[in-house]
Fold this protein.
Amino acid sequence: MTQPIDWTISASDGKARAGTLTTRRSVIETPVFMPVGTQGSVKGIRFEWLESELDARIILGNTYHLFLRPGVEVIRSMGGLHKFTTWDRSFLTDSGGFQVFSLTDLRKLTEDGVEFRSHLDGSKHFLSPEVSMKIQAALGSDIVMVFDECPPGDAGFDATRSSLQMTARWAQRSKKRFDELAVAERKVVANAPDLSGKAALFGIVQGAGHLDLRKESLEKTIEIGFDGYAIGGLSVGEEKSVMYEVLDFVAPQMPSDAPRYLMGVGTPEDLIEAINCGVDMFDCVLPTRNGRTGSAFTSQGKLNIRNAKFASDSRPLDAACSCSVCRRYSLGYLRHLYQAGEMTASILISHHNLAFFMDTMKKAREAIKSLTFQSFRKEFLAGLSENDASGV
Amino acid sequence: MTQPIDWTISASDGKARAGTLTTRRSVIETPVFMPVGTQGSVKGIRFEWLESELDARIILGNTYHLFLRPGVEVIRSMGGLHKFTTWDRSFLTDSGGFQVFSLTDLRKLTEDGVEFRSHLDGSKHFLSPEVSMKIQAALGSDIVMVFDECPPGDAGFDATRSSLQMTARWAQRSKKRFDELAVAERKVVANAPDLSGKAALFGIVQGAGHLDLRKESLEKTIEIGFDGYAIGGLSVGEEKSVMYEVLDFVAPQMPSDAPRYLMGVGTPEDLIEAINCGVDMFDCVLPTRNGRTGSAFTSQGKLNIRNAKFASDSRPLDAACSCSVCRRYSLGYLRHLYQAGEMTASILISHHNLAFFMDTMKKAREAIKSLTFQSFRKEFLAGLSENDASGV
């Protein structure tokens, strides 16, 4: 493979696309949901399940977290993130920017980069496009994200515009450094003898809820040129309608000959609506985070396992789901585990939630291929409100 | 099967025995370690792993905990403990006595039984031989334990003697009620159509560290007559030497034509020493409890995953272990997961610990069958002190 990724669209239905993204490590059918493995582990889920039943082809690692702990030197000495974690399919790593910019009181921002204090121990660190590229190369990530600034969702027009312009300059610097590091990175992945390909670099479109700024950011990002394009700065507190408006405006204008990635989003409804706008890739902590708090995603909407009415309910979380949790365990048993504080409650509900997200993507792919995406979407969205209607 | 259990000894080596215990639900090779599923779940371990790789044939459920939460009515309405939890191999349930007698400030003891307050919400409850039998029958347990009093390990001779005499009277009452309930219980297990056998009832020998009281308790228990015999009241704070002395004295005198069960014990060393005295069955929370605190049992002794020297160590927890955790994950990665507070650290280390306990039992069985138990024991115990010697 001479290109970092291979990207082919196998079917389109309206703006929705079904495709195949091939990285140097795995073949990924899109639309795809990428489980989040922030610290090199998907919370509560053994890789064995992600490889077999859940069949995740790519997961996300967070540069900020891995940089602070265990640190780049440890991961480098263990042969890179794949060897360290034993996950040998693809890793997409974010740039660390999103987490750093969430530390509002702990950072100092300049054109050069951002100085911040670790949320773990207050130690001082510096991230910049160059540093982020170096870290992601050392990790051995398969899809690298440019280092971008994520302004608050409620930043005004001028502040958002300044920010996206700096993001564009940082994207340019990211690409330059990424290319320089390609040789060095080869050394890291040399431990994987069957691995000849390069990592891919994705650019990020910012601009908050301002459509004209989104357009400006998109144009600047395309001008630099990347292997894929991401939409950042959504699902950061804005109204749903704003997110959908931005998606509807931006996604179709993104290059069709590259994958489109909506960062950190979202609910099953969000995913379907974004696919409807032409987005191909997603990541979100919701399946595992909600799993830990006893909240299950189902084809009929969300379900709270703490609800007393489930105490003696022998039905599964979702009768329409064929995952290993729904095939075996009852609402009553899962509720008992949750109420009793058993770790297996988090494990099992997180597993189901991930299975539901993966299965939703599979159904979306199939609907696009059979040109029935609109009817699938309508039915799927209608189903999601059933539990609300029945007061679950 | 007309008898509640079938018990055959296939080999003996000195006092150590290898046998097969067949309950109405599963065939159990002994010596056996029973993972603890206090609240109907082995902490951090999905049943799928217990059924496949770990191949546990019997696990333990705690009557006290299940009685308080989710409560007998919920479990009964869900078809019994097996249907509720989906574990269809054997369950041994304790009587609830041990937990109640741990609530020193919350109980009131009479000849009739014990009144206590729930550690969960302070609600008042009553347990007696009759009530315990009724609960265990409703759970659908395969091996039921008599309701016994567990006096403090440092109770004097007279108090311990009075206690064991009451335990004997309670054992008699337990047996009477157990037999009466046999018909009623059939209704509970009627949901399992392939299940024709009866549950078994085990008696418990008390007497703390007083050998003559142990003898008295043993005689009284044998006189009543049970399907199996357990040693209670050990590993409750006494010196190791006292426990070994009691085991050496009591175990060989227990009926050889019934399984012998050492309750709530212990470390790998304890298990091997008890097998050497002729014990067949064990349960203990150590593998999963230690797994959650980052402490691993290995063939070279205990290992603390928090130790900084493991940060970049690519070796497994135990090079001699072939479990799925040791075949795949490194000390460095497991340490990172633990330090980062990832649930998967508890999951994976608990899994290894259980695998190590199960494998130790398997090796003991094989050694007994090949009449090499003494050399196995010597080598195993010598191995356990290697980490101590090397300062791990």
Observations:
- Residues 232 and 263 of chain B are 6 Å apart (CA to CA).
- The mean pLDDT of chain B is 94.
- Chain B has 14 helices and 16 strands.
